[in-house]
Amino acid sequence: MRSILYPLLFGFLLATLVGCSGSSDNDNDPPDNNDPDDSQDIDDDNGGSNPIGVSTGDPANITIDVANHHVFAMGRGEVAQTNLAIEVTDSRGASIDERGYNNRSLNNLRVTVVNAPHGGEYFSGRNAAGEIVQTSLSQPSIDIRTEGGSASLSFQAGTLPGMVEVKIEALRNRNGGQLSKPVVATAPIISIASAEAHTVHIIWRQLSAVQDVNNAVYRRVGKVKVTDRYGYPVKNAIVHLGLIDTVLSYGNDGQVAYGDQDYFHTNNPFFGDFITPLIRDNMQLYPIDSGSGKGSRLLIKDTPIPGDRNRILVEAFGPNTGRVNREFGDYTSNQFLIDGASNLRWWLGVSETGGSVTGADGLPGTVITDNEGEGEFYVSYPATPRTIHLGCIAGSYGHDEPYDLYYYDEEGRYHSFDIRYREPESAQVILVAEVSGNPETGARAVRVDPSICFSSIIGWSLTASETQLMGTETHHVRLRLVDGGAEVPLPLEPINVGIEKSRDDLEVEIEYHPIVGRGLRTDLYGGAWVSLTATNGRPGDRAQVTFSASRDNDASVTVTIEVR
User: Fold this and answer.
1) What phi and psi values does residue 13 have, to the nearest 5 degrees?
2) pLDDT digit string (tens) for 135-193?
3) Which CATH number fits domain 2-193: 3.40.190.10, 1.10.3370.10, 2.60.120.10, 2.60.40.10?
4) Strand pairing partners for 122?
5) pLDDT digits (tens, 9 = 90+) for 300-320
6) Which CATH architecture has domain 461-562?
């Protein structure tokens, strides 16, 4: 008897003390499909008065907790489902009580899909009759019922990626009547990732990027990030990495043939060709003579179809025509390639100087991405005067001043002063990352990155064979520039010169033999000879000549000349 009288008495007191009101967050009045007599127990203005702050018991707030905001498209072997917990409370924060409805067939919540990719995804929940109901493209709304103010929804992803938004509306007041303005809440967005790689990015660490692993080997730390077409991370993607550290031939007019899709053409390579690539090591530590380009890696930058960027030249039919190991995309039928694929920048090359790439887990040329779609890798290379700064040494043809970094001009030609190669343009390092996509379509995500080089370790040091010189005769000083790791001699680096004199009339002549281009640079072994002569001086005159590395001003040495 006690359990029956208490709610009746409590409801009577509430009805006596205050008026009834509904909360308003939406101007749309939803139809009541579950209440035949559509009983109203609220004021026309949906406001009412509440002079002493006692709750009306009508819905005032809806909270929605999504178990997992990120799921994957169905059929990708990943989690494609999540749950939503819904709680409806009154203005005091107490859960609504459906027992006041006196009708167990009333649904009091409406679930409406606001935005979705329409790939077969749906929300499902339980209605007042105990039946499972679910949304669809033709029926974006379903009505369900809470129990003790709580309800749950299940979300199942479809086959398409995208973002899903759902709206929850509380439709009924404490007595089961329809609220003139429902209480509305929007659930946090649920994102559906495709789990199919669309883009692979190569990211180079800036701090502590190069590590000394002893035995005259350095390694540079990089990272790949794989995303799908909508920018969602793709986890457990297998990324295959490859490296060219010697370019045999390259150009900017590559073409993919229409008829035979496995042919590649170029009319005017900048140097070399498919039959007689030009490369030989000037330092002659050991000869490099690759002969034909057959079997070399062919990298093509920025093809409209990413999967076309990484190939192997399996046969050369002439200087400018070759067959590759895998067909190119169907350019003739692809809707955004009406004019075909031409004027493509390309490189033909091999790993000739000892460069290699491994995943952080030690897998040769392979990285498996984590939950963020990321994975680290290492580019390892010999740390010797012959290999250090390969791809980093800059130069310009016909310019007075050298550039600090390598660069490509407007025509796509690479500029370098790296005379360690007969063809300085061979001295390039290019990384390629490839992710296999959908096995049914053969889609691939490929990135070609020519920005890498065999970097040294910061903290360079510049020394001089003598720092205190006396007299007016000519002095010969040997400079030596090494890096901050294994003290690897740094070849072909520009050296800046600055002079401070105790008297303006004192003259200091500095002579050196340019290695390449103009200006003072280290030689192939990180050294440089300079001749210093003080003239027109008086006893006691002093001059300080400061030499500093152009790319690391902290690496400097001062030579003092004193006139006797």
Assistant:
1) -65, -45
2) 999 999 999 999 999 999 999 999 888 899 999 999 999 999 999 889 999 999 998 88
3) 2.60.40.10
4) 156
5) 887 777 888 898 888 877 777
6) Sandwich (2.60)
